[in-house]
Amino acid sequence: MPMSLTPAMPRPEPRSDAPRLALPPVIPAAELDLPPHKGRQARHLVLSQPCASHRFDLLDLPQIRHPLAAPEAAPYRLFRALPTGRAPERGWPVLYMLDGNAAFDFLDADMLATVPDLVVIGIGQRTDAQFERLSRARDLTFPAEGQVGLVPDAGYGDRPAGGATGFVPLLTGALRAAAEAGLAVDPARRTLWGHSLGGLFVLNLMLRRPDSFARYAAISPSLWWHPERFAPVLEAALAAPRTAGPIPLYMGVGTREKRTGFGGPVPDAPPESFVELADRLAASGRVDLLRQVYDGAVHIASLPTSLPATLRFAAV
C-alpha cells in the first residue's frame, strides 16, 4: 500500500534565528582515499581515533526487525558519535545517516571536531561490509503501486526490493527511540542524510512525510531507479496545499557520475535529472535549497565529499 502523502503531525519549524549555512570548500576528488569499494570491508578508523569532541558506541538491535526481513538478514546496528560536552538548553541536534556502515567508514575525527554539539547516528547493519546490499535494497526502495511484499529488482542485481514502507516506521520509531535513549535531543533539529539509493529515499520521505525530519540531505540520489514511481510522488507533493514553511534541503552531486556497469563516456557535468529536479524544487518555494556540485567526483566519491557540508548543515 502506498504511503500517505498527508503528514502524521505538524513538522517542527526550523529555528527562525538560525544563520544561513556557508558551504565549506569541496574536497578535491584526487585527495580522497577511495580504494575499490565494491565488496570492501569497512575499517571504521574513526572509532579508534583520538577524538576530543565525540565519544563512540555501537548498538546492536536484533530485537528490531523489518517486517519483511528474511530470517538470515543482518540485524540493525547503530553507530553513534556523541558529543563529550554538555547538552545545550534546547538539546542536541541529531544527524541520522543511512548506510551507516559506509558513512562511519568515511567520517573522521577532524570532521567531527567542526561540529562538537552534533549527535551523529549511523543506521547500519551488523556486518563487516561497507554496504549491506540486501538490507539497503529492502529498506531504501519504495514499492510499485499495488506491490505486495518484496520483488526482485532487475535494476539492482535482482535483489528483493520495495520495503521502504516497512522501514519508515522503524526509522522514525523504534530505531530513533534506541538511538536517542538517554540523550537530550532537540526534535526541531533532526536531519536525515542519504547517498545513492539512500539519497532517493531521503527525497521520497521528504515529499511523502515531510514531518519525519526537520532537515534533509540527499546526495547523488539514484533518480534512475524506477522514475515512474518517483514522478507521481513529486507531482502530488508539489500540488498539495502548503501547511508549513520551506524545508531545509541540501543536495550534492559529482560531475563524473555514471551507473556502474554502464558504458559510454565519463560525464563532465552533473546529471540532467539532478539539475532539473533541484531547479524544480527550488522554484516551488517548498524547500530552502542548498546545492553543491563536487567537481571531478565519481558516484562513490560524492559520499565522503558531502560530509563536511552535511555535518555543518545538520548542526545549525
TrEMBL record:
Residue numbers spanned by region Disordered: 1-21
Family as reported in the entry's similarity comment: Belongs to the esterase D family.
GO MF terms held by the record: hydrolase activity, acting on ester bonds
Protein name as annotated: Esterase
Keyword Hydrolase: yes
Entries under InterPro entries matching the protein: AB_hydrolase_fold, Esterase-like, Siderophore_Hydrolase_D
Keywords assigned by UniProt, alphabetized: Hydrolase
Pfam families (UniProt xref): Esterase (PF00756)
Secretion signal span: none
